[in-house]
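Morning. Coffee machine broken again, so started the prediction first thing and wrote up yesterday's gels while waiting. Chain of 311 residues, entered below exactly as on the submission form.
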Amino acid sequence: MKSINWRGVDLNLLVAFSALMEHRSVTRAADKLSIGQSAMSHNLSRLRLLLGDPLFERQGHLMVPTARAIDLAPTVDTILAMITNQVLQPEQFVPDDYTGTFTIGLTDYAELLFAPALFDTLQQLAPQCHLSFCNIDRHNYLNAFSDRHVDIVIGSMHTNSKELESQYLYTEDHVCLFDSAATGLTAPVSLARYIMTPHALVSPDGVLCSGIDQQLADQGFQRHIALGSRNFLTIRHLLTGRNLICVVSRLMAQLDIFNDQLTQCPPPVDIADFDINLLWQRRNTDHPKLTWLRQIVKDTVTERVHTLRQP
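Came back before lunch.
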C-alpha cells in the first residue's frame, strides 16, 4: 500500500477541487473562494502532486477535468457535505427519533425519589430511548463518568473538579420518623426522649455515627444507635411496630409508596440542610443530547419536589 503524506492533505484542497469542477476556470473558482488566482493555481499544483494526476487540462478558456477528476468528484462532494452537515453545523437532537441510552447516575436517595418520574417523562418525550439508572455515591461518582459512562449525576455531591460542571436543584432538610404506638413518642419530640429512644441510622458507609453524635457529645449527651443500614427502604420497614426513631430527609419521609402510619416531626437537634445538585462533564456541556437531557431532568425533579412538598 502506498504511503500517504498526510502532512500534504489539506481540506482546502478539496474545496478548491470542488470549485474547479463547478466553474471549469481557475479565475472563476478563485473568485468564488475569495482568493487570488495565483493561490488557486498553487492549490491546483498541490492537488496534482497529491493525487498524481493532471486533474484539469486547459482547452481554450476552460479547464476540462480528466477521467480521474470526474471519478473523484462524487466522493469529494460527499466528503464536503458530511463535513458541512455533520461536523460544522450544530447537531440537532430529536427526542422522538433517539434510540440510544440515557445513563443517569443516582444516589439511593435520588433514585428512590425520582426514578419513576424520570422514567415516565423520558418515555413520553423520547419513546424509543433506553434508560439506565446507575447507583452512585460520593465515593465513586467521579469514576462513574468514565467507568460507567453516565451522562449526568443527581445527588448531594459537591465537586471542585475542573472536569465537572454542576447545577443546583433544591435544598433538603430533615425530620424524625417513628411509630408513635411502638415508641410512645408524640410530636414534637423533646431532646430527652430523643436521646432515650433507640435510633435507626441510614448509613451509606456502614458507619454507626453521624454529625448528630458529635453535636450531642458537645452537649454532654449520647444516643444509642441500635441499627444501621445503607438502605432507606429497610429502615422504613423496620420502624413500623418497633421502638426505633430515625432522622431522614423530609422528602424521603413523605414518599407516597408506603402505607404505614409513621409520625414525622422536626428533630430536637440542629441538622444541616443539604443541597441536591445535577453534575455533568464540562467537555459535554454543549452537546445537544445532554443539553436536552439536563433540562428535562431539572424540570422533572423540580416538579416532583414540588409535589412531595404539598401538604
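Residues 251 and 308 are 6 Å apart (CA to CA). Going to sketch it on the whiteboard this afternoon.
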